[in-house]
Write a structure and sequence with these properties.
It is a single chain. This protein is of the alpha/beta class. It has a single domain, classed as Rossmann fold (3-Layer(aba) Sandwich), CATH 3.40.50. It is built from 5 helices and 5 strands; from the N terminus they run βαβαβαβαβα. The chain has helices at residues 17-29, 40-47, 67-75, 96-101, 114-132, and strands at 10-13, 35-37, 55-59, 84-89, 106-109. The chain has a 5-stranded parallel beta sheet with strand order 2-1-3-4-5, sandwiched between helices. α2 runs parallel beside α3 (67-75). The chain starts with 9 loop residues before the first strand and ends with a helix.
């Protein structure tokens, strides 16, 4: 059965080269080929463009702009373009409530594993499909 994930453009913003490799490997195992950027300023350019990705996986802590700030900006767009935002963090003490209050669709620890990442992405696909079918 073909994965529906391959139909969607995914941006992964992460400043750690090691985490980029780990998460990119997990995404590729899930049939995703994400665009990867390594700072918040570059992520902002992509996310606020006329053709943003369908799904953004944003590291909480990045140089230039953090994932929370980017999430707020993306969710405040007034042009009707929807981006499903997943906030990732390695820090257990980060507040998921803050991420959700800033508009994040999902909050996930980087060490949650491929099954948890897959579940988040399946939920993203479900929401994206429900938006496009209305």
């Amino acid at each position: 059965m073909e994965s529906k994930l391959g139909r969607y453009a995914i941006l992964y913003a992460e400043d750690s080269k090691i985490m980029q490799k780990i998460i990119r490997m997990m995404l590729r195992r899930l049939d995703c080929d994400p665009a990867v950027v390594e700072d918040g300023l570059t992520a902002r350019k992509v996310l606020m463009s006329d053709n943003p990705p369908d799904i953004a996986i944003l590291d909480w802590d990045m140089p230039g702009a953090d994932g929370i700030d980017l999430c707020k900006e993306v969710k405040a767009r007034t042009d009707g373009k929807f981006v499903y935002v997943i906030i990732l963090t390695i820090h257990e003490n980060k507040d998921a409530g803050l991420a959700y209050s800033c508009g994040a669709d999902k909050f996930l620890s980087k060490d949650a594993g491929i099954e948890a990442l897959n579940k988040c992405l399946e939920e993203a696909v479900f929401e994206l499909e429900s938006i496009t079918s209305t």
